[in-house]
Design a protein that fits this description.
The complex is a heterotrimer of chains A (about 70), B (about 750) and C (about 200). By secondary structure, chain A is an alpha+beta fold. Helices cover about 30% and strands about 30% of the residues of chain A. The N and C termini of chain C lie far apart (about 30 Å). Chain C has helices at about 5-15, 25-35, 50-60, 110-120, 135-145, 155-170, 175-180, and strands at about 40-45, 65-70, 80, 95-100, 120-130, 150-155, 185-195. The chains are: A alpha+beta (about 70), B alpha/beta (about 750), C alpha/beta (about 200). The interface between B and C is small, with 6 and 10 residues.
């Protein structure tokens, strides 16, 4: 269940000046919440959602939950 | 109750009705499926199907008097299908073992059948299958009665024995050489008197629907009741009697819901317009050979309606037809808890009303889907993604940034108010300016101008709340202008105003231009041929269709009408917000329309023009004829993107204010706004993803103000996200030497990030 | 089993807390709550997979639970048997659970009759499975024909959709494993064995 692209992502938190770390983050839609592994700043909580996740997997999940 | 209404509408669609052949057949053989199987060469499937309705298919196939044939739609184009001959062919050709017939568990009731003709034997067969103990009494030495006489050479005694063997197989008892007295069979719970044409006594009066006699438990029917012998009517008699006897023995109503039995008039409509005549193949003396049967079956039209499905890509794309869709929609709406399944079906219709024009029953799926959307919204079950981009665009068009309402220069109110509509302003803002000037020059000096959206997107989305807001705001402004007459350029605006603000007087820009002589009276003829695409919202506006054609002809063009035009025109896919709810079907809709003719198209709705252009069709807006010198390059003008459309509206308002009122729009925010650049290839991606320059600006502003952003130390680029409405936007950008930003990428999602912010 | 490949099953297993079907333990718990099992009631999980539900029934509900599955697995202490012929005496059980199994069987009626055989009169049958929401009458009728009275019937299609969404998020192909025909739904049912 690892998000390979996320693990390799080069992003650092600009505010805290530290690299993001893998963490379980809840994402929610239309009343259902799901745990996903994302990179996150352990200090301020800002997260990184890769383009691929947003445009394919999240979009698909949104569609399922919307009954489209 | 609206759901009640949906139920009534479902009844309207007649696609489910039996075709004329089946309706006319006294036992309703499914001829259409039968010929379908045979045409595919699947004789076993055909025979299996036949056995569902006919107890003795070989016999019937050989001697049926075919009351169905005279009703066959093929009779109008080469002659009715040879239905019985096909039945016979499949009975003789099919290579299927004798069927195993399912007999229900035994019931302790006994039925006597007096008379072993087709009617009696059918009743015996049906009742035995239901589990009754059945005895057939036949005075002669063999079963079959008249069939042996009418059968001739086609029906040999061996063949008859073979078919009737099934009775023994399922346990019907037969007493030959027995003249039973129907009034004196005390061992039986019910009696069916089925005397053949050969004779028998006259019984009591018989009820024509149930075949019950005045005597308890005695039912009678058969050839005696008719003048001429009809094998298939005998079968139908037997079946009718069997149904009655079964009901009698179960003690339920004999008369309830029997209207569906026997020969009926079909209510199915089949369009014969494009059917090419074809005649039956010659028949070998012994009946159709396999090949001949296949050929004949292929002549069957597979009668059905689907008039609407043929012209509507949306209806076709969901794989079924309105009766089913309405049921599905109804089910979807009546689910109180749990999950829906038909949201896409409900939201993809363009609400264009073409279906109602072609449907023999006038069923309008557009109004069904429009109602359904309103019910969903009332139930708070509309998924937010369906329409929010379009609704935000509408709100933007009516925001201070782009909306405007001014009287004629130098006045406080006006007699006329030009309302070009939000999409014309977005697509061709310079045409709005030129038209406004033209109107004041040639028509009346007293014309004001109002920029904004009529509320059509809210109407399409079923958002009555937003629609009301738009119309209320409009009415306030309209009254402020002295309730002028509206001059409308967009047929969708016309529809909205006529429907929801009938007290507001409106006139179409095209009628005004035609009558005021703003368009040329008669220009020299040109080579150029144009096909006119009438916008679907102008479907019922015959006068408008005329005005447009007069203008186009006056410009010297030759018009070649599309197969579907005027009242039967199609939607460009923008209607009903189909374009946003189902981009895939929308693209197919556009594609289908633009392939209807190789000629350049001309239309008078800017959304139609832009969408056709977006898929490569050369298409003009009627205003191009008035204002463009190089019409050829206008027809290939690209469809402006979503951000560009907004920008066009904003600039239009600015220019008009400056020119007509001398007012210069001050935009303080502008000063502090971060500048950014979007390369063309990135812009193309953003368009596709429905991401506006404005969204990007907000994400960057938020990131730069709060410092909440991600950086890539290797490349120095920045990534930031921000939730606007119900969408989270991600923008990746880099600083340029000039201090501006350049946008590398952007994407969005609707799922919400529940951030566990650590302190 | 909703997912037929081993790798898929592992994913699904992890996603649903090991239970590998929509709703996780919550549906099972919900069903148990509507039965009145005696303390130490004897319950069989027919088609128990890894046996995780059996463990759950023992540890959280105090039931004498055991399981059978058609697939063998050396590390599992459960009997290998077919749901068509359970290695259990007639009338011996207080409850039978059968989750996500019936819809895969060619002859569900036969399995239901077998469940009826091993259940004591008034014993409970707990089912949760995929079904065609357009034909939900079928399953209910079948239960009645096989000698059961339905005491609970609930649609849990939302749980199915959530599982589908979760799988989509993990990049798994949810279409092959959840047969997402539009009308495919998920139900939870509890039925009581009638007195014959
Ligand atoms: S053409 Fe075919 S379906 Fe139509 S009426 Fe004739 S036999 Fe029936
Ligand atoms: S046109 Fe369409 S809606 Fe009307 S009866 Fe035919 S199939 Fe039904
Ligand atoms: S898109 Fe138009 S023709 Fe098609 S169903 Fe909707 S209203 Fe009818
Ligand atoms: Zn941080």
């Amino acid at each position: 269940m690892t998000l390979d692209s996320a693990n390799k992502a080069p992003w650092h938190c600009a505010a805290c000046g530290i690299p993001l770390e893998k963490a379980k983050v809840q994402i929610a839609y239309l009343g259902s919440a799901f745990p996903v592994d994302l990179l996150r700043c352990s200090r301020c909580g800002i997260v990184f959602i890769p383009e691929e996740l947003a445009l394919t997997r999240m979009a698909e999940a949104e569609k399922i939950l919307e009954d489209k | 109750m609206e759901q009640e209404k949906l139920r009534r509408l479902e009844e309207k669609c007649i696609q489910d009705c039996a075709p004329p052949c089946t309706a006319a057949c006294p036992v309703h053989v499914d001829v259409r499926s039968l010929t379908g199987h045979i045409a595919r060469g699947d004789f076993s499937a055909a025979l299996k199907l036949l056995r569902k309705t006919l107890p003795f298919p070989t016999i019937i196939g050989s001697i049926c008097d075919q009351p169905c044939r005279s009703h066959c739609n093929r009779s109008l184009a080469g002659g009715s299908i040879e239905i019985a001959a096909l039945e016979r062919a499949c009975a003789f050709t099919a290579d299927t073992p004798a069927p195993k017939i399912l007999v229900l568990p035994a019931r302790d009731k006994r039925v006597a059948i007096v008379g072993g003709g087709l009617g009696g034997l059918t009743a015996a067969f049906d009742l035995r299958k239901k589990g009754y103990a059945v005895t057939v009494f036949e005075a002669a030495g063999s079963l079959g009665g008249s069939i042996r006489k009418v059968g001739g050479e086609r029906l040999t005694p061996e063949c008859i024995e073979g078919e009737l063997a099934v009775l023994e197989a399922i346990g019907v008892e037969v007493e030959l050489h027995t003249k039973a007295d129907v009034f004196n069979l005390p061992d039986f719970d019910a009696v069916f008197a089925a005397p053949g044409a050969a004779g028998g006594s006259q019984y009591l009066p018989v009820d024509p629907i149930t075949y019950a006699t005045a005597r308890e438990g005695l039912f009678a029917g058969g050839s005696l009741l008719r003048d001429a012998y009809s094998p298939i009517l005998s079968v139908a008699d037997g079946r009718r009697a069997a149904i009655s006897i079964d009901r009698y023995l179960q003690n339920v109503s004999l008369t309830a819901s029997r209207a569906g039995e026997g020969s009926l008039q079909s209510c199915l409509y089949t369009n014969m317009g494009s059917v090419k005549p074809a005649i039956a193949p010659p028949r070998s003396p012994n009946g159709f050979t396999i090949q001949e049967a296949v050929q004949e079956a292929d002549r069957c039209l597979q009668c059905e309606c689907l008039e609407c499905v043929k012209v509507c890509r949306y209806l076709e794309a969901f794989g079924s037809y309105p009766k089913k869709y309405i049921r599905e929609t109804y089910n979807n709406l009546s689910i109180v808890m749990g999950v829906r399944q038909s949201n896409a079906l409900i939201n993809s219709c363009s609400l264009c009303g073409l279906c109602a024009e072609v449907c023999p029953k006038g069923l309008d799926m557009g109004s069904v889907m429009s109602d359904a959307r309103r019910i969903m919204i009332g139930q708070k079950r509309m998924p937010p993604s369906a329409h929010d981009f379009a609704l935000r665009d509408m709100l933007f068009a009516n925001s201070d940034a782009s909306a405007l309402c001014i009287p004629a220069p130098g006045k406080d109110s006006c007699e006329y108010l030009f309302f070009p509509g939000c999409q014309l302003s977005a697509s061709a803002p310079e045409h709005v300016e030129k038209t406004y000037a033209l109107l004041r020059d040639t028509f009346s000096a007293d014309v004001g101008l109002m920029l904004g959206c009529c509320g059509a997107p809210a109407d399409w989305a079923g958002r009555d709340d937003l629609l009301k807001q738009v119309l209320d705001d409009f009415s306030v402004q309209h009254r402020r202008m002295g309730s002028p007459r509206l001059i409308l350029a967009c047929p969708s605006c016309s529809r909205v105003f006529r429907r929801y603000l009938p007290e507001v007087e409106t006139v179409s820009l095209w009628e005004v231009l035609e009558k005021s002589g703003a368009a040329p009276v008669a220009a020299p003829a040109r080579e150029h041929v144009l096909s006119i695409h009438d916008p679907c919202s102008a479907r019922n506006d015959g006068r408008l269709h005329e005005s447009v054609r007069i203008i186009v002809t006056n410009f010297g063009y030759t018009i070649k009408e599309l197969p579907l035009s005027r009242q039967k025109t199609t939607c460009c896919s923008y209607g009903g917000l189909m374009w946003f709810a189902n981009a895939k079907v929308a693209r197919e809709v556009i594609d289908r329309r633009i392939r209807e003719s190789g000629d350049d198209y001309l239309t008078y709705c800017s959304m139609c023009r832009d969408l056709f252009a977006s898929q490569g069709k050369r298409c003009l807006h009627l205003l191009d004829l008035l204002f463009e010198n190089d019409v050829s390059s206008s027809s290939s003008r690209a469809c402006p993107g979503w951000s560009q459309r907004r920008e066009n509206r904003v600039q239009l308002k600015r220019r008009i204010l400056t020119k007509l009122t001398g007012e210069v729009m001050t935009d303080d925010a502008c000063e502090h706004q971060q500048e950014f650049f979007i390369a063309a290839d990135v812009q193309a991606v953003l368009e596709q993803r429905f991401i506006l320059a404005e969204d990007i600006r907000q994400v960057i502003a938020q990131a730069e103000q709060t410092g909440r952003k991600l950086v890539n130390p290797e490349t120095g680029s920045t990534l930031a996200y921000h939730k606007l409405g119900c969408v989270t936007y991600w923008v990746e950008y880099s600083s340029t030497p000039g201090g501006a930003f350049s946008i590398n990428n952007a994407y969005s999602h609707r799922m919400e990030i529940i951030e566990g912010v650590k302190s | 089993m909703l997912y037929s490949t081993a790798a898929g099953q592992r994913h699904l297993c992890a996603m649903t807390g090991g239970i590998m079907r929509p709703g996780g333990f919550s549906l099972t718990d919900r069903a148990i709550a509507s039965c009145s099992f005696p303390a130490k009631g004897r319950v069989l999980d027919a088609g128990c997979g890894t046996g995780i539900v059996v463990e759950h029934l023992r540890s959280h509900h105090g039931l004498l639970a055991c399981g059978i599955d058609i697939a063998t697995c050396a590390s599992r202490p459960f009997a290998q048997a077919s749901v068509y012929s359970l290695p259990v005496k007639t009338g011996a059980l207080n409850g039978v659970l059968c989750e996500c199994v019936l819809s895969l069987l060619p002859d569900a009626g036969r399995a239901l009759r077998e469940f009826g055989r091993v259940l004591a009169v008034d014993g409970y049958l707990i089912l949760s499975d995929l079904y065609d929401r357009e034909q939900q009458g079928c399953m209910r009728e079948l239960l009645q024909c096989c000698g059961f009275s339905i005491i609970l019937w609930e649609d849990h299609t939302k749980a199915l959709r959530e599982l589908g969404a979760l799988m989509a998020l993990q990049g798994l192909d949810h279409t092959t494993c959840l047969e997402t025909k539009k009308s495919t739904g998920y139900y939870l049912a509890v039925a009581r064995k009638d007195t014959c």
